[in-house]
Amino acid sequence: AEAKARKDARRRLEAEKARIAAEEARIAAERAARVQSTVALATQLAGQRAERKAAEARAEADKRSALGSRAIDDAARLLPGVPYEVRSQVEVLAVACLAEASIERCLLIANDLKVRVDSSNRALKAELKRAADQRKADAEEAQAGLRRLAELGAPARGALNTSLYDVVDGERVFDDSLHAEVASAIKAAEQARATEILKDALTELGYVVGEEFETAFAASGNTFQKPEWGDYHCQLTMDSDRQRASVFMVRTEGEAVTLTDETKERDREMEVTWCSELPALLDRLREKNFVMDLHRRMEPGTVPMPIVKHRPAAKKQRQSAATGLVAQMERQITKP
User: Fold this and answer.
1) Are 234 and 308 in contact (CB under 8 A)?
2) Closest among 145, 184, 196 to 166, alpha carbons compared
3) Are 238 and 294 spatial neighbours (Cβ–Cβ below 8 Å)?
């Protein structure tokens, strides 16, 4: 019985050892499995991190490439005519953007380049528009000058007409010198037209116009009379700047004569005659689209009539010396 008990005890001990060994093996197997799983997980995580970093690197590279392409495209948008200094700055920025490794710095450079290009293009477009508007205004003014000269019947002036047509075609600027030349030509044409209209109106009304009546704006004045007036003449002077004409009657005498009451009365009668005929002259001028409004009138006989020894045109008369002023008119020409 004792031997059997020992045998049973040994069996139980061996069974316990086997169980313990099996348990240890199981534990070791589980531990090994956990280690293997941890290693696999670590490997997977490392692979994912590497893949993520690679993707981020590719995305950053793509973004840098996109920014570089945008910088090149923006630089290409720079309009012809932009100053060389601006173009050089834009080219330097485009190269810097392509070479920059930092995405943040690359973005700053690309944005700076875009702003410069946009602002430079806007400034150039505004300048081109101003120039185009000025050319248009100059062309319209030149055309108006050509029309006005043609309306006045001005003779063809090759150099001036060529200059004005050059302005119309945009080949020349309407500068101050050309403005002055056009104004002078128009003024001369208006004076010539005024002279022609005055001569025609006076001739149609039966007046004899003096030979010196080449321009109604002569400093010495011009004379006209009717054949029955004898030694009496009307003297006309015109101020082109003030657009004003002055007409007064004078008497010619070969030698100095004593001013008698009879002479004074004759002078007054002639002034009355002229004053009575003045409205007809103004009406005739108005018919010719040459309007002159009576500005000031002195009654006949108010002051002594000026006396000249020779024909009035042979001696210069000062406006301030026109004491025999009968009528002073303001001129207003209505343009066709």
Assistant:
1) no
2) 145
3) no
For residue 172, the one-letter residue type is R
Contact in structure between 242 and 335 (CB atoms under 8 Å) = no
pLDDT at position 311 over 70: no
β-bridge partners, 235: 223, 248
What is the pLDDT, as a whole number, of residue 220? 52
**CA 129 → CA 123, 152, 255, distances in Å?**
10, 34, 73
pLDDT at 331 over 70: no
d(CA 89, CA 117): 10
Contacts of 320 (CB under 8 A, 6+ apart): none
Q: Output the six-digit token pair for 125.
A: 């477009």
Secondary structure of residue 174 in the 3-state scheme = coil
Q: Is the CB of residue 234 less than 8 Å from the CB of residue 249?
A: yes
Check residue 167 and give its pLDDT. Answer: 92
Structure tokens at 112: 């700076």
Determine the Cα–Cα distance for residues 294 and 244; give it in Å rounded to an integer. 10
Residue 254 near residue 309 (C-beta atoms within 8 A): yes
User: Which residues, including other chains, have CB under 8 Å from residue 96's CB and lie 6 or more apart?
Assistant: 109
For residue 189, the model assigns a pLDDT of 83
User: What pTM, to 2 d.p., does this model score?
Assistant: 0.56
3-state secondary structure of 235: strand
Could you write out the DSSP letters of every residue in 206-229? TPEEPTTTT-TT-TT-EEEE-GGG
Instruction: Mention every residue, 6+ apart, whose C-beta is less than 8 A from residue 101.
Output: 64
Q: What is the pLDDT of residues 8-43, one digit of tens each?
A: 888 888 888 888 888 888 898 888 888 888 888 888
β-pair type (325-333, 307-308): unpaired
262-309: pLDDT as tens digits = 888 888 899 999 888 888 988 998 888 888 777 777 888 888 888 876
CA gap 33, 37 in Å, rounded: 6
